[in-house]
Design brief:
27% strand, four-stranded mixed beta sheet, single chain, alpha+beta, five-stranded mixed beta sheet, 236 residues, globular, 5 helices, 2 domains
Length: 236
């Protein structure tokens, strides 16, 4: 299976869409850009921001992206799923994030956390503090508030979101797919995601999709790539 084919039908009028095919790759339509997005880390190895990396695709075409983790042409599918007998049970919760999330903090600062979609990217904590401690503080200084905003906004899965003074603090993001080194697909901008059984997941601004083949909540990432030793980055 090649990395791209003819332009997707209706791609100019239909919403961007990712379909997890049965025991096979992701079919992507209406999404123009696929690029690396790499964590910027402190000297202690703590991720604090994202840096745009190499663009791998930038055309209004149909793409087929590997989700078994075995392709020799990552992130694109090369039909390795057939060779390895990939079996994908798409068990992601089809409900809403708001129904699952727990709220932390009070007053003008409310952090919402949906652990079920966490990809364990590590932006939510440092050696000194974390998003939950910051949200619980009665008096946030300007620096601490900025740190909390960054922690929530950089969460790739959208597990963490922040509300300040009654207003959602959510970054404006394009409809595109980014690759996290040795990690999942970072899907942004309200792309429609369809499971292999036809179930549509809640449309969100930030999502992470499994591409190591081992997540228990496919097509969403559950952080299993680290334990599975999944490797795919600009360096290897």
């Amino acid at each position: 299976m090649t990395n791209s084919a003819a332009p997707a039908e209706g791609s100019d009028d239909s919403p961007a869409r990712i379909t997890a095919t049965p025991n096979g790759p992701y079919r992507v339509t209406g999404v123009r850009r696929i690029a690396w997005r790499e964590p910027v880390k402190t000297a202690e190895g703590e991720p604090i921001a994202w840096a745009q990396g190499e663009v791998l695709a930038d055309a209004n075409e149909e793409y087929w992206l590997c989700r078994c983790g075995q392709s020799g042409n990552k992130p694109f599918c090369d039909s390795s799923h057939r060779r390895v007998g990939f079996q994908a049970v798409d068990a992601a919760d089809g409900g809403t994030r708001s129904a699952r999330a727990k709220s932390y903090g009070s007053g003008g600062t409310v952090l919402e956390d949906d652990r079920s979609i966490c990809a364990h990217a590590g932006f939510c904590s440092t050696k000194l503090t974390n998003a939950w401690k910051l949200s619980a503080s009665d008096e946030l200084g300007a620096a601490e508030r900025s740190q909390l905003v960054a922690m929530a906004a950089n969460c790739p899965s959208g597990a963490l979101t922040l509300e300040l003074n009654g207003q959602d603090v959510e970054p404006t993001m394009p409809a595109e797919i980014a690759l996290m080194p040795d990690g999942p697909l970072l899907v942004t901008g309200g792309v429609v995601v369809e499971c292999s059984d036809g179930t549509l997941l809640e449309v969100r601004n930030r999502m992470t999709l499994c591409r190591c083949g081992t997540s228990a909540t496919k097509p969403l990432c559950d952080g299993s790539h680290a334990e599975a030793g999944f490797r795919h980055s600009p360096l290897h």
